[in-house]
Amino acid sequence: MIPAQIQSRTAASLAAVERALAELRRGGIVVLRDENGAAGLVVAAECCGPVAFQRLQGLAQNAPVLVTTRRRAEAIGMEIPPHIAGGMGDTNKPITLDLPAGVPVDIILRPHEQGTDQARHVALRHLSRPVASHAPRIAETAIELAKLARLLPAVVLGPLTRDPGNKRRDWARDQDLVYVDAADVLSYDDTAARNLQQVAQANVPLEGAENARILAWRPSDGGKEHLAIVVGEIDPTEPVLIRLHSECFTGDLLGSLRCDCGVQLRGAIAQIAKEGSGVLLYLAQEGRGIGLVNKLRAYELQDDGFDTIDANEQLGFDADERVYAPAATMLTRMGIKRVRLMTNNPEKIAQLSRYGIEVVERVAHSFPANGHNENYLRTKALRAGHLL
Ligand SMILES: Nc1nc2c(ncn2[C@@H]2O[C@H](COP(=O)(O)OP(=O)(O)OP(=O)(O)O)[C@@H](O)[C@H]2O)c(=O)[nH]1
Ligand SMILES: [Zn+2]
C-alpha cells in the first residue's frame, strides 16, 4: 500500500506537468525550475504568438534564446562546435541558439513546412551557431515538455536568475504563470506509467473474436487511456500470447496503406482468437510516440524523399520515442509475467524484459506489402533492425 502523502505528492506532480502541457499547447508561458534553482520561461516555438513572446521577453532576465534538439539543428545544416555537440550518442542533446531581434521564432520550424533547401538557407542565415546554454538542465527539460505536449521539439527560452531560495513558484503565481518543477517533468512518463488505474471493463464481441473484453487503464494525471483487449480466458500460469500495438489512427481506423498497422491489428486479433486466448495492448503512443500531427508532418517529409527514420530526425525527434512502461504495468496488474510476444521489433522484447516481463518466445508478425508500404517495411528491417 502506498502512503497517502506519497499518493497525493504523485498526483500533484502529474497534475503540475499536465497543466504545463496544456499551457504550452495553447501558446502560453511556463515557468520551469530545477532543483538547483536554475530557471527559465518556456513557450513552444510552434505555438508562440507575438503576445506571449513579448511577455516572455519582458519577464526574462536576458534575451530569449531558441532551444531545439541537436538532430533538428543538424537537419537544417547547422554546424555545431565540438564543445557544444556532446558525444557521439548525444544526438538528442538540446542545442541553444541566439535569437536575433526581429527574427521570427518559427524560423527553426520552417524547413519542415516548406521542405526546401531555400527554407533551410533562410533559417541558417538568421540563426547564428549554437551557444552554451545558461542552464542545460532547463533546456533539456523544456524540450522534454514540448515532446510530452506532442509539439515539435523547439522552444523559446527566457533565462531567469538562479533562485536558491525556492521563490520561483510564488513569483510565477504572482505573475499568473503556470509553474512546474523540472524533476516532475523528467519523471513524468515513469510516474504516469506506474500509476495506471483500471477504470472500465466491458465485453465487446469482435468480428472473429466474439469472446473479447476491453479493459481501459487511465494514468492518474487524467491523460489518454491505454487499452487491453483480452480475448478468451487467459491463464497467467502459462506464457500468454501478447501483441503490443501502438496506436495508429491512419492505419487502424482509416485503413491507410502507408504502414502495416491495420493488417497487424486485425491479424493479431485473428491469431489470438485462433490460438484461443491472449491480450492485445492498444497503446496510446501514436506515431511511435510523436503524436498524430507530427506523424503527418513526417509523412510530408517522406513524400519529399526522406525515409520514416530520417523524417522523424528531421523534425528533431528520435527515430522512436515510445516508452513501454505502461505496457509492463498493465501486464503485471493482469498477473502476466511470461509472454509469447507477437512482434518483429527487437526493442519491444528488450523493453518488456527491462521491466521484468519474460519474453519466452517471439512470434513473427509480418504481412505482405501492399503496393504503398514497401519502403516503410524495408526501412524498418534495414535501419530499425526489425526481424523478418
Ligand atoms: N513517426 C512515424 N510513425 C509511424 C510511421 N508509420 C507508422 N507509424 C507509427 O508506428 C507505430 C507502429 O507500431 P507497431 O506496429 O506497434 O510497431 P513496430 O515498431 O512496427 O513493431 P512490430 O509491428 O511489433 O514489429 C504506430 O504508432 C504508427 O502510428 C511513420 O512514418 N512515422
Ligand atoms: Zn500505422
From TrEMBL:
Q: Where is the active site?
A: D320, R322
Report the superkingdom from the record.
Answer: Bacteria
Keywords, A to Z, come to: GTP-binding, Hydrolase, Metal-binding, Nucleotide-binding, Riboflavin biosynthesis, Zinc
Which residue range or ranges hold the GTP cyclohydrolase II domain? 198-363
The molecular function terms of the Gene Ontology recorded here are:
GTP binding; GTP cyclohydrolase II activity; zinc ion binding
- Cite the CDD domains for this sequence: GTP_cyclohydro2 (cd00641)
Per its record, the protein catalyses: GTP + 4 H2O = 2,5-diamino-6-hydroxy-4-(5-phosphoribosylamino)-pyrimidine + formate + 2 phosphate + 3 H(+)
Q: Which GO terms describe its cellular component?
A: cytosol
Cofactor(s) essential for the protein = Zn(2+)
Enzyme Commission designation: 3.5.4.25
Q: Kindly indicate whether the keyword GTP-binding belongs to this entry.
A: yes
Q: What protein name does the entry list? A: GTP cyclohydrolase-2
Its source organism is Enhydrobacter aerosaccus
Source species taxonomy = Bacteria, Pseudomonadati, Pseudomonadota, Alphaproteobacteria, Hyphomicrobiales
Gene giving rise to this polypeptide: ribA
